[in-house]
Specification:
140 residues, alpha+beta, three-stranded mixed sheet, two-stranded antiparallel ribbon, globular
Amino acid sequence: MSSSQFLLETTKNEALPLDFNAAEYSSELLQNLNRLFTDECLCDVGLVVHPERLIRAHRCVLSAASPYFHAMLTSGLRETSLDVIDMQAVGDPNIIEKLVAFIYTGLLIVVRVISNLPVSKLVNSDGKCKASSDWSATVT
């Protein structure tokens, strides 16, 4: 049985195949997570990217989407227990904001590439939009 097929048991103890489109499910899940992010609903961490800009987000979503956030939020670092994390030293606030938005939407518009910015370590998406340690994107 493939990972996208499950069996549905009926009241007669018969097994019926149940197929679903995992792509539709994952797309809808991402849309729902983005709605929670946009509405700041159930957010459990704040990222300070500028003295006047706080991004509210979900630890589990950030951790699942980014090795950088996963290490920060799960490895016992000081940030693990903080409700608000200062990200100002990481990089340009606009880039961090757009990369967090990418985590929730899967959309990122790259305008130009700039070398050696530490913010490039924030996103790793299985090669689809992989940022290495030696480049970063300026986004709109």
